[in-house]
Structures are given as C-alpha cells and as structure tokens.
What we know:
Largest sheet: 7 strands, mixed
Helix content: 25-40%
Amino acid sequence: MTRLCSPRKLFLASGNPGKVREFQVLAVGRALEVQLLPGFADIPEFDENAPTFGENAAGKALYYSRPRPEMVFADDSGLVVPALHGAPGVLSARYAGPGASNDERLAKLLDELRNKTGAERAAYFVCVIAAAHEGRAVAIVSARVDGEILEVPLGTGGFGYDPVFFFPQLGKSFAELRPEEKNQFSHRGKAFRRLMEALE
C-alpha cells in the first residue's frame, strides 16, 4: 500500500467562494495551501443525489480527483432541523428550488418554522469532508454543531443559513461571529481540523 505524504496543497472541489475562504483561514499556520480546483467550472458537474452528506462528499472528492494528480477534497454540509423531519438536510443549497437565492432559502425555512417554538426550533449544522487522490479515497471526516433557528436573521457575516442559526454557547447567530470565533466552533472548522489530523 502506498503511503501518501501530507500534502502541501489541497484543492477544493467547489465553486463556492465563501467555503474556500473559510478553509483558507483554517489552513493559516499550517504548511498547507488551500485553493479552488483549477478548471472546476469546466468539468461536468457531479450530481449530488445521494441521501447522506457522507455519500455526497465522498462521491464529489472521488469524481473530481480522478483526472488530476493533486489531492482534492470536497465537503457536503447543511442544516438539519429535526422538527422538519431533517430538512433542509442534503438539500440545503436547493431548499427553495433550483436557482433560488439565499434570501429565498432563508424565507422558506422561517416560513416552515413560523408556528414552532422552543425545542421545535432546535437545529444543527453537519459537515462531512472527504479527500481523494487520483480517484482513491484518502480520508473522510465529519462534525456537527448544535443550535436553534431564530425568528429573524441577525448579523451580516458568514453565508448560507448563518444569519438564522443561533449558537447558544456564545449567544450570537453564526453571522454575528467574528471569523476566528466561527472557525473555532463551526461544523466546517471542526471537520477541517479533523481532516488535517488524518492527513498528517
């Protein structure tokens, strides 16, 4: 079995600039550079139709790593609201339909929770990250963070569902956290640190 050395560069299989910025900040202080996968937009899109975050993350990493010599990683992350039977879940980015804006996704979520209170507004973020090299899985890690859904968005930072995700430990929404705070506590931050440990 070939043993892989810890990579100096990791290429993110995503077109989401918000995600790559978070991963780049998380990589600061390590002998590691995180970049968007070159030519990502020109590669036929991977169909994320699996029912779990893990299957989608692993599928993306394997798919986008096959034609390349570099280490590629992909994540699948989303918001889970038990009172909505797990929605938005793996459909978090498509919750309000294909092409919907982030504001439209937030509006749909808040509308679905309009008459729910207390524990019914409990929610958690999940992140699964998979790394692959030339079509072979190298590592798969996961993390979650628990909170609750606010009645109105708060804060201007972050992206996605951050403005409505209240984090009780700090008494703020994720969109109100400083970047270093969010990276310390977020599902994506926890999962990325686990990935670094696995690769090192």
